Amino acid sequence: MNLQYNFSGGPGALPLPVLMQAQQAILEVPEVGLSVLGISHRSDWFREVMDEAEANIRHLLKVPQNYHVLFLQGGSTLQFAMLAMNFGGMGESPPSYVSSGYWSRKSMSDSGVGSGMRIVWDGESSGFRRMPKAAELDIDSRTSYLHYVSNETVEGLQVTDGLFAGDVPVFCDMSSDFMSRPVDISRYAMIYAHAQKNLGPAGVTIAILREDLVERAQIGLANILDYRTHIAARSIYNTPPVFSIYIVLLVTRWMRETFGDLEGLDAVNRRKASLLYDVLDAEPEFYSAHAERESRSVMNVAFKCQTPELTAQFLQEARDAGLHGLEGHRSIGGVRASLYNALTEHEASVLASFMKIFSKRYAEAREFSLADA
Ligand SMILES: Cc1ncc(COP(=O)(O)O)c(C=O)c1O
């Protein structure tokens, strides 16, 4: 049994009971008698898998009836472009974007919207250390839509209550905090998230889209890039990632059985994050958190040690201790502990203890060598 702890930024850890069922399903799905890797996407069994996965998502997120739930491919990166193609021309003025970190910048550059795009808030000058409040957004009410990223995976920043502006349709990339907490879906035009953080392996992306918007989407797009195609085909227009969707079903079942609802899961996730932020707060001389307090992410805790050498040492010793995936994103370095749904409270507490022991040992050694000098 693998006893390594996985703090990877994504693809992230999956629950052990799900991995065990997946292992069995690779050989044989008990109710079918075939490997999950060789079952037709047109089979009755797979239709049931999709229906139950959708029902679980609807139940846990309390998705209103007037929203479609789609299983798409191409990752969240395809959604950056696809939503802009479909909805970029909806308003009298161009789409609006919040620029709050690495992934929101990618959502802008990959949208294809080009120079007409309006940036309604930009965190670059403050080093992408916080998320804006809705009141800070400089929005033109005629804009086609407002796009933001709810959780900046790289910098470890999270929006608390959502960003809304009157009747402007809001599109949100929730890739790294999807289904980790309750969300009022009715306030959004569309939310989307790839599976590989909180919901399953890479390969499938969930989009939850309000029905009436579809009528306002661009006409004449290639079928595969048109949301209407996927709605009409109930997410089986071409061959979907059967295995990934099957795992989403197992993970959502696990979520319902283990936590009951997203309120319960959110409480656990907050406790996990507090374990780490408490250590960072208790030792400000040794550790520095990237995010300002009000924007701290519950999913990704990004920080550095006192010096780059100590950060490298921290990562090496953590790996040796069986704590994996803690390297910060290549764009900002440092340490990033990702605490997605499958990461247990116990695992977070082991990392918190490791952080305390590490800082104590190296702070003392440093004091000693300074006194010695
Ligand atoms: C918030 C966010 N959005 C988008 C992406 C890109 O997702 P994908 O690789 O599925 O295209 C990532 C990747 O980690 C992410 O964290």
TrEMBL record:
Cofactor(s) named in the record: pyridoxal 5'-phosphate
Residues where N6-(pyridoxal phosphate)lysine is found: K197
Annotated residues for binding of pyridoxal 5'-phosphate: W103, T153, D173, Q196, N238, T239
Subcellular location: Cytoplasm
Catalytic activity: 4-(phosphooxy)-L-threonine + 2-oxoglutarate = (R)-3-hydroxy-2-oxo-4-phosphooxybutanoate + L-glutamate; O-phospho-L-serine + 2-oxoglutarate = 3-phosphooxypyruvate + L-glutamate
Enzyme Commission numbers on file: 2.6.1.52
NCBIfam families in UniProt: PRK05355.1
Family according to the record: Belongs to the class-V pyridoxal-phosphate-dependent aminotransferase family. SerC subfamily.
Recorded metabolic or biological pathway in which this protein acts: Amino-acid biosynthesis; L-serine biosynthesis; L-serine from 3-phospho-D-glycerate: step 2/3; Cofactor biosynthesis; pyridoxine 5'-phosphate biosynthesis; pyridoxine 5'-phosphate from D-erythrose 4-phosphate: step 3/5
Quaternary data: Homodimer.
Biological process, per Gene Ontology: L-serine biosynthetic process; pyridoxine biosynthetic process
Protein name (Swiss-Prot/TrEMBL): Phosphoserine aminotransferase
